[in-house]
Write a structure and sequence with these properties.
Elements (H helix, E strand, L loop, with lengths): L3 H8 L11 E2 L2 H11 L6 E5 L7 H5 L4 E6 L2 H11 L8 E5 L7 H5 L6 E6 L5 H10 L4 E9 H7 L10 H9 L1 E8 L4 E2 L6 E7 L11 H16 L5 H4 L7 H12 L12 H14 L7
Helix pairs in contact: 6-8, 8-12, 9-12, 11-12
Amino acid sequence: MISPRELLKELEKRPRKRLGQHFLVHRHSVEKILKFAELTPNDIVLEIGSGLGALTVPVAEKVTRLYAVEVDSELVRMLKEKVIPEDLQSKVEIIEEDVLKLDIENLAKKIPGKLKILGNLPYNISSPILFKLWDKSDVIEKAILMLQVEVAERLVARPGTKDYGILTVLFGYRANVKKGFTLKPEEFYPVPKVGSMVVSIDFDIEKVPAKLSPEEGKLFVQVVKTAFGQRRKMLRRSLLGLGPGIKDHLPAIFETSGIAPDARPETLSVDDFCRLTKKISQCYQKPSQR
């Protein structure tokens, strides 16, 4: 594994703070991540933020195809010219693109089966990337991600805790999330101010039973975001944001769902939100839907 300091020195380049660049520096960290990822020779992987190729090369050695997404044009050039060995270049397609703008569904159309995602997510855009992966989860089998510890804890938080929120509920509904292990700041260059955690997000629909219809699923997202948009308010107040006329239906919704009107969103489980969504779907339609 080539030292990121040496590669950056060769490029006469400094890490770009705006892009949240922090590069893995130890081979043992990479090996630990790969072991946790459980990649197979049949896997097709999308790597988010290839950087200096610390994961790119060893992943390419293990899978049938790798799409490596990197937004920094200088790093893209180095990956192509100096990092990826000639014998692996046929297996690796480097995509110079902002991952938030990447059309994951169109990419998935080119392959049999589903994508596996691997990446060291920039801290400053980790939540938007997570929401994008959640939204495109029908073409994703699994994601192995390095996240800021705080964000990782939010994914697996329990109801009633300060970390429990929109991310927790949405991913709790559509995926199985498992914490892996932590990475110290010293395992990156430049050294970040916070630690990282590796997590596994399994979107396999056979393991995550469908609880809601597609239309109810869209409403579920709206209900969760509306409720947590004013998380200190009771549900009988916060859910008024769902639309005109909802107030008249809330008493029946709360009664039939078994959800207390004075409950706050952080006390509801994923199943509670599903049950609440079903009752809202049955009792209330926005004026434009009538």
